[in-house]
Amino acid sequence: MADEADLVRKALKGDRKAFEMIVHRYEQPIINYLGRVLGDRELSLDFAQDVFLKAYASLKSYKPSYKFSTWLFKIASNHVIDHWRKKNLVPFSLDRSSREDDEALLPQAIDPGHSVARNYELAELKARIEQALLSIPAGLRELFVLRHVNELSYEEIAAVKNLPVGTVKNRVFQAKELIRKKVEADS
Amino acid sequence: MKHAGLLEMDLYLEGELDGPRKERLEAHLGQCPACRDLLEERRALLAAFSSLAPIEVPPAFAASVLSRIPARSRSRNKVAAGILATFGFWFLSAAVFLALAPWLLPDAVSKPGRWLSLPVGGLVIFFGRMLNTLAALAKLLGIAVHIASQWLDSLIHLLSPGVLALLLGLTLLAAAAAFFGLKRFIYHGAKP
């Protein structure tokens, strides 16, 4: 498998084949990310094209010391945020206090209703999770998708979103709990 | 007994917990069946979260992206071809001029002896004739400009100031469009 930095170098010299290989490598994760965050396949395909075109136009600014996937997800995330801004969608309040985030770290009592995974067959559970995912705040949804759909590490997500790792962990957890409670409420 | 936190359990399952926190949790799980049950529940939930179906990518997606990228190399070739054509034109013109020089400069050709005995003088004559030819061309150009200026002068007298202003505005607009069009052609694909 060709090295990403090498592919970028070739693409910068006008090698379209090299950039095509980059697109092939990342089309699935980027479309998964956009599709799950936006909840609209057609829109996600359009956005994915825009993301790759933006990446192509900014290849010169890519530093090989950074992970290429992180750089690409950052472009995708900025594109999504621009879209939300245009539609006046607020992902979540950015002035949310770190204290609120930290509360999730505290030990909790056992939740008696915590049996979602046992109550459904896996296929049905996945369908309910997909539905619930679209009902949670967009910013939390994005972090959940980066972690559980794209399987980025917490450190990578922190780099993509310019957030502290601890905040990312807590917000992903909040997203999971909102989804779980939503699935539970629907049962 | 203080139960384990859900976030802590999730981080443990994701391999994100280490050191004393991990040891503390494992010790608690060893004593607390309720937390062990909950851990298994969280494991199943995380597995479900991570198994959402991928979104189908159209087979021609990459080709579609590539089709929207301007063909940089082709544009560069166009510019290079333009430069080559310009130089080619001037080279060809010089060659034609030199080929026609014997007819344009009969003195220089009819007196080869003088050329051979006085090569420097011959060169001076050659360039002198060349200058004569250029002067004749310049004179022709001058006449053309004079005729054009007379034509323009009579046109200005014929047209009203409003029409003249309109014509001037349109000319400026066309010049700007030509300039930016040319600039875009030159940079087409070169600037992403």
Give an overview in words.
- The complex is a heterodimer of chains A (187) and B (192).
- Chain A has 187 residues and is mainly α.
- Chain A has 2 domains: 4-86, RNA polymerase sigma factor, region 2, helix turn helix motif (Rna Polymerase Sigma Factor, Chain: A), CATH 1.10.1740; 116-186, Arc Repressor Mutant, subunit A, CATH 1.10.10.10.
- Chain A contains 10 helices and no strands.
- In chain B, helix 1 (6-13) crosses helix 3 (33-49).
- The two termini of chain B are 63 Å apart.
- At the A-B interface, helix 2, helix 3, helix 6, helix 7 and helix 8 of A face helix 1, helix 3, helix 4 and helix 5 of B.
Low-confidence stretches of chain B: none
CA-based gyration radius of chain A: 18 Å
CATH superfamily of the largest domain in chain A: RNA polymerase sigma factor, region 2, helix turn helix motif
- Gross morphology of chain B is elongated
CATH topology call of the largest domain in chain A: Rna Polymerase Sigma Factor, Chain: A
Instruction: Kindly report the oligomeric state of this protein.
Output: heterodimer
Tally of strands of chain A = 0
Helix run count of chain B: 9
Chain pair forming the biggest interface: A-B, 54 and 41 residues
Order of helices and strands of chain A: HHHHHHHHHH
Distance between the termini of chain B: 63 Å
Tally of DSSP helical segments of chain A: 10
CATH architecture of the largest domain in chain A: Orthogonal Bundle
Which bin fits the share of residues in helices of chain B?
Answer: over 70%
Q: How would a crystallographer describe the biggest sheet of chain B?
A: none
Helical proportion of chain A, percent range: over 70%
What's the overall average pLDDT of chain A, rounded? Answer: 86
* Beta-strand residue fraction of chain A: under 5%
Mean pLDDT of chain B: 81
Low-pLDDT residue spans of chain A: 93-107
The gyration radius over C-alpha positions of chain B equals 42 Å
